[in-house]
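INFO  loader      accepted 1 record
INFO  loader      residues=463
INFO  predictor   begin
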Amino acid sequence: MKIEKRQLQKTFLTALILCGCSVYATAQNAEKGWVNLFDGKTLNGWKKLAGEAQYKVEDGAIVGTTVMNSGNTFLVTEKEYGDFILELDAKVESELSNSGVQTRSHFDAGANNGKGKVYGRQMEFDPSERAWSGGIYDEGRRDWLYPLSLNPKAKGAFKTGEFNHIRVECIGNEMRTWINNVPCAYVVDTVDQQGFIGLQVHGINREEQAGKNVYFKNIRIKTTGLTSKSFPAGIYVVNTVPNFLSPYEKKNGWNLLFDGKTTKGWVGAYKDSFPAKGWKVSDGILTVLSSEGKESANGGDIVTKEQFSAFDLSFEFKLTPGANSGVKYFVTLAEKNTGSAIGLEYQILDDQLHPDAKLGRDGNRTLASLYDLIKADKQSRFTRPIGQWNRGRIVVYPDNRVEHYLNGVKVIEYVRGSEEFRKLVAISKYKNWTKFGEAPKGHLLLQDHGNEVSFRSIKIKTL
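INFO  predictor   done
INFO  writer      dumping tokens
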């Protein structure tokens, strides 16, 4: 009898301890400010928009299932959120599937013939060979903002067929993403200060994609007392705010080459001062004016006063119809030639209207190409229309590897001074220049090719 009484006392004490721990854990969770967006049992607080995919709750997870010939379908929160930290676990069961999490997003009920359209920034789940999971896509609007080609070290973070821990921070104008504690993407963007959160089932039109599931669970959000998780140094930032550097960029060694107001740091090629005509600065934009296509016949090229060897250079450019220009690097000005100064050139061109696109060899004079040497391998979807801003990027590593990017996608990779490079030079218009493109350092150049082209957000980091 005494044994039974002691056993009852022990059982009661154990239950009391467990209850106390549970209460303590709940209190701790509340103290930290986390709120569950999914109760593990129902879809209360959520609604379906746009497509025909199905959502249900199964074993404590939201399960979205693809449906043939449906567009993108979203399960979205009934509430909207501004600044927040979002965490969840997500699984994509097939490499044929695609999914993502919408942030600060919106719904246009009249779009797509009344079926509606969700639009806003999305953290991508991409189990394909491309492996852009963790990248940031502007659903229904601007397309890719941060392809994961900008941070290739994060490509292997997402595991298909198993749950991945997801973290998204939207604080102020910054959006940052993590997968399984691996930092993925960093965007600075003033578009959308608040909106709903959504879970995507991607639209499909192939039978083998039908009936595939995506899973979401442990969805929680924090909207007060936000503390950003540290982001390691050296990750590229897509910053859509013109002529602005974020604190993270400044800390990581980025500097503006154009302040949006003056021509400080620039002079005319083969000149001691900035051209008196042919260029203008207005509304945060540096523009070379038209001279009816006459190369360097108006203001002429402009170059940085400073010279660079290994660097990461970003710039935005906007073309007028039929325009031609370029960003040149390793410009020494030693040639003293007439016309445009000599250097390696990131081609800036209206491929559809300018005749230069059909010259050279195999398209090596088209947009983002290494002019007259290597054609840019690009898809049309990653090129913004004439009259809109495009983002160029040139990276020169200390070992002479060079990369060209267009709107975040790598389109060229080569090695300066390599045997392959020299063979290309030998059959190009540069064949008569000794060791063309192999100078240890040089100026950066914006070309006056006689057409109106605008530049902004020109920033550089030495490597």
